[in-house]
Amino acid sequence: MKKVRAKKYLGQHFLLDLSIAQRIVSSLEFEGKIPILEVGPGMGVLTQYLLQNQNIELTAVELDSESVEYLAQKFPSLKVLEADFLKLNLETLFPDKFCIIGNYPYNISSQIFFKLLDYKDKVPCLSGMIQKEVAERIAAKPGSKTYGILSVLLQAYFDVEYLFTVSEHVFDPPPKVKSAVIRLTRNEVEKISCDEKLFKTVVKTAFNQRRKTLRNSLRPLLGDNKTLTSERIFDARPEQLGVDEFVQLTNLIAPFVSRT
Question: Confidence class of residue 258 from pLDDT cuts 50, 70 and 90?
Fold first, then answer.
């Protein structure tokens, strides 16, 4: 196994196995020449392979100043932003479509995917490595114990593929959890057929009390509206509903929810 310099940064354990790095880079699917944003490049273990592709216009965003300095020295042609990805205005940075890739920091991976939803129409593909638990949650299907808010919101707009599991022993230092590589590809749904803001609210409210039936978990939105909640769908628990059923549910309750 080939090795590169590694360090721990913001909860991220850096990858030592370069064959896995190559597989992660290959997991990103796009057509033609397109800007790519690499999140948290660290010491450039993915960067070195991304730069080999002439169809990639690569920008890297890295918060750690030492890593930024290292990347600037090792890859002089690379555009590196010393910034917090979660605070970036990606609309300004990328006027047109772009893809995202990364060995994502464990402690902000869920936040990265929630941010993706804000730019869903600009990102045709996102791939990369996150902790296995989060990857399973994103890829989970209705009826699964891991199916939840991220599953529904992301699957409404993206086709999700859990690609492969990565052992903790290929990192330095080894994390306490396994990792996984995941790919999200924008689907053909331009806009879901309901109020998108209310859809998010319904999904989040429902899963805040996932063990209860929707009749009870959605009470913060609907109050004790027995006429509405007598509908059969309210007998279900949130993990039993797919994206289309959450859309139907949103449309059903929309007339009864006050807008602010």
Answer: low
pLDDT tens per residue, range 198-234? 999 999 999 999 999 999 999 999 988 888 888 899 9
DSSP bridge partners of 39 = 61, 102
Q: pLDDT band at 4, cuts 50/70/90? A: very low
Judge contact between 68 and 62, C-beta under 8 A: yes
Looking at the chain, list the stretches that DSSP marks H as alpha helix, in order from N- to C-terminal side.
Answer: 18-26, 47-50, 65-74, 90-93, 109-118, 132-139, 149-155, 196-207, 214-217, 219-222, 226-229, 243-253
**Close Cβ partners of 150 (under 8 Å, ≥ 6 residues apart):** 110, 113, 114, 134, 137, 138
| Ordered domains of the chain (ranges, CATH) | 14-186 (3.40.50.150), 196-256 (1.10.8.100)
Q: Phi first, then psi: what are they for 80, rounded to 5°?
A: -115, 125
Cα separation, 79 vs 213, in Å, equals 50
What gap in Å lies between CA 154 and CA 79, rounded to an integer? 29
